[in-house]
Amino acid sequence: MEGSKPLKVRLTFSVILVGVSLLFAAVVTDHWAVLSPRVEKYNSTCEAAHFGLWRLCTKRIFMLEQGPKEKSCGPISLPGERNCSYFKHFTPGQSSEIFEVTTQKEYSISAAAIAIFSVGFAIIGTICVLLSFRKKRDYLLKPASMFYTFAGLCIIISVEVMRQSVKRMIDSEDTVWIEYSYSWSFACACASFVLLFICGITLLLIALPRFPQNPWETCMDAEPEH
Questions:
Q1: What's the confidence (pLDDT) of residue 167?
Q2: Where is pLDDT greater, at 213 or 150?
Q3: b/e for 100-133, b at 16 or more Cβ within 10 A?
Q4: For residue range 71-109, what is the model confidence (pLDDT) as tens digits?
Q5: Is the CB of residue 26 less than 8 Å from the CB of residue 185?
Q6: Helix spans in the chain (H)
Q7: Residue (of 152, 143, 151, 157) closest to 120 by Cα position
Q8: Alpha-carbon distances, residue 126 vs 7, 45, 150, 215 (angstroms)
Q9: DSSP state of 98
Q10: CA distances for 172 relative to 99, 165, 211, angstroms
């Protein structure tokens, strides 16, 4: 690497590491979306849920009387009995009155599979950048930038699949859920897309050879003919 290029690469790589950290946080946590059913009577328990790519967690919350506009269960941060199950443990017909198991399982498997590709691309890109710090290996920056860009695209596709999953459940006539909100894991996934995609393109621009600033610069740098 020549000139200020190493500094630019290290700064870009530092931002990319933040994006990768957010990506891992989004993939391994289960706070992508929070679902709440309608509360018909107070001074009793209701069941809210939050889920991610791998598991669903339900929480029994004791609801006191609230204002006339607050008809949903929650917020999910209130104390209550918590029960979590991984999606692979679900079978059709089990707990169907609480959660649309089959539908959510199909969507979550799709979103999780795409997220795994995103994680894989991010890991390979990081390996390429670390190897490029050695002498005469800065050519690895170009594939690294593409891997980070692909990682960003995959995670935003996973986000869209999850969003469609929630929308389909809320729009269903048989659902018990009346309200939903996206939580911090969802925000981490969106933020990782922005950082990985933008910094991936930035890293590619840094890795490209410098274009001549003057028309005659290329001629002056050319080797003399013998």
A1: 82
A2: 150
A3: bbeebbebbebbbebbebbbebbebbbebbeebe
A4: 666 666 666 677 777 765 344 444 444 445 455 566 777
A5: yes
A6: 5-28, 101-132, 141-171, 184-207, 217-221
A7: 151
A8: 17, 47, 13, 37
A9: T
A10: 12, 11, 56
Q: What is the pTM of this model?
A: 0.77
d(CA 66, CA 45): 14
C-alpha distance from residue 165 to each of 21, 27, 86, 225 (Å): 25, 16, 17, 66
Find tokens 């960003």 and name the residue: 152
**pLDDT class of 120 with cuts at 50, 70, 90:** very high
**pLDDT (tens digit, 9 = 90+) per residue, 147-170?**
999 999 999 999 999 888 888 877
Q: Starting at the edge strand that comes first in sequence, how are the strands of the sheet with 33-37 ordered?
A: 80-86, 55-63, 44-51, 33-37, 177-182
Instruction: Please tell me the predicted confidence (pLDDT) of residue 24.
Output: 96
Judged on CB neighbours under 10 Å (0-12, 13-18, 19+), 181 is middle
Over its C-alpha atoms, the chain yields an Rg (Å, rounded) of 24
Name the percent of the chain lying above pLDDT 70: 68
Distance CA 12, CA 10 (A): 5
Q: How far is CA 193 from the centre of its chain?
A: 7
**pLDDT of res. 85:** 74
State the CB neighbour count (10 A cutoff) for residue 98.
15
